[in-house]
Specification:
657 residues; alpha+beta; Serine Threonine Protein Phosphatase 5, Tetratricopeptide repeat; Heat Shock Protein 90; 5-stranded mixed beta sheet; two-stranded antiparallel ribbon; 26 helices
Amino acid sequence: MISFYPKLLPCLCLLFLLYTFSSTAQEHGFENVLAYVNQQQPTQYSELDSLLKSFESDSLKMKRLLLVTKENKHHEGTCYALNALGVVNRNISNYNTSITYHQNAKKYADSAKSTELKIISLNMIGVAYRRMDVIKPALDYHTEALKTAYSVINPSKTVKRSIAVSQNSIGNIYMVLKQNDLAINQFKKSLKIEKEANNKLGLAINYHNIGFAEEAKGNLDAALTNYKKSLDYNNAINSDIGRVICFNSIGTIYLKQENYNDAKPIIKEALEKALQLDDQFYITASYLNLGLLQFKLNDLISSEKNLKKALNIASSYNLKSSVAESNKLLSQINEKKKKYDVALSYYHKAVDIENTILTEQNLQYVNDIVIEYENENKNNQIKALALENELVRLRLERNKNILLFTSLLLAIIGTILFIMNRTKALRRDKHILTLEQDMLRSQMNPHFIFNSLNSIKLYIINNEKENAVYYLNKFSKLIRKILMASKEKETSLHDELETMKLYMNIENIRFSNEIDFKINVDPSINTEVTKIPSLVLQPFLENSLWHGLSSKEDNKKIELNVTKKSPNYITVEIVDNGIGRVASQKINKQKKLQRNSVGIDITKARLANFSEAFENSYSLKIEDLYNNDLPCGTKITLQIPVKKLKSNFQSLASKST
């Protein structure tokens, strides 16, 4: 034993030197590539990808690329780095961070006027939303990417590849919506493009997705054939993540075919590789498959343990489909263990997550659990009730008239309460409708429309055709957005801010474009998901314009800042550098025709109604700003609730009070 170590030491030293040399060589290789990119500043995605492909999964190197390209204003290189960092975060299930990187990448693609990079960025955002099971934004971004790609007259290989990605992703979304035939049609279109390009990764992805759709249709043999084709391509490109996906899918088919001997090793191998990759999405899928296998083999303890692991990971990373599937399987385990109350609880959680209409089969399943649970309780109660049966019969006989009277009285009270609640509901609905009508009238102010059209007419008279067409387009788009928003009680923060940009563009005509209007949004806020009442910000902007800036001679500014200082609210600040409320009131008193601020009163009522669905109410604060005791503007701070819907019971209680 003693003589062994002197022999081992030179080997260890050699291995260490080889490792150090390899790492140093790779680092020098990246620095050389970075120097080349910095000097040449390539604009084509294909050239950037050929140079940086081997480093794109290294977040430290991509952050270094990001820093250097930003310093040198190389927008294409910055876009590539941001998208690479987005993919790195998506692969470890940091989806919100991933979306932020890809959205910033799209901004740099727009700055670079690179259609290729814009399409890639749009697809990346769509993929991240799809992994989160947020269907509408995912479909919107992939559709926009596809439309942009089809608008290119002579598409490059990169654009064609992006078309394939869009079609593949849209197919996946159709799968979520249970439109399997439509999904297969999209996958086959994508497959055709990948075959022409001989892209083995794309072929692996599409064969797998076709298999997934065939499995959903119940064609297990066809699904297995496509999964194995996908696995062959993943082996050819040595993709570990592709192997994990295929192993899980093939294991699922074996489970459905009750071929447990073949299912067990392939599912375990999928889990081992997923844990090595640290991809929470596929770790969850592997634990789900392993739990299902153990359930089929009647190993309920191990099955429950692995399914709870899947549920915890899926809940932590907002993997909605996996949360629903975990809850369903845990429901079946508890049903088998005759814990019917627990089974029912898990099943209801699954149904709530899926947010779909229960099928007859699912409804029957829930009813069966309810009946069995109720029967178990009733059997225990019958023994106790039998002893009191005679006493109860005598008591019922004696109190027959009292019970009849009480029942009648309760029925009358119930009817009265129902009528009162119904009347309250009708009044509330009428009030909401009135608010919406008042809101629309406020937005469609005749003075605003008349003055806007007069301004456009002036451009036409002065033969400023480009300005006339530009502002007429803006005006028509604003009117259309106002009419569409008036039909909805709430809208996304993104759409609201877009509408406010249009409104300020139109109003700025009458101020000879003197107003400097800026919108600043906290990057941590997902404007696509955050909901607020529609057209809620317009009255405050109008107030800043006409009461704060209309009487000021120059240097007119309005800033709209959106931040999230608390998890319960988003905070909207509208700051102007106008003359202040005191001076504005003096001027208004001297005017014969004063502008009414009824829009703000309507908005307050709408905000109060919107807040009823949340744990916290809105708040509104208006401050006068001073500089050395001189008024220098006004600041409006509006806090809009965004978190924790009330339960039905709480909502009813608040309405009744």
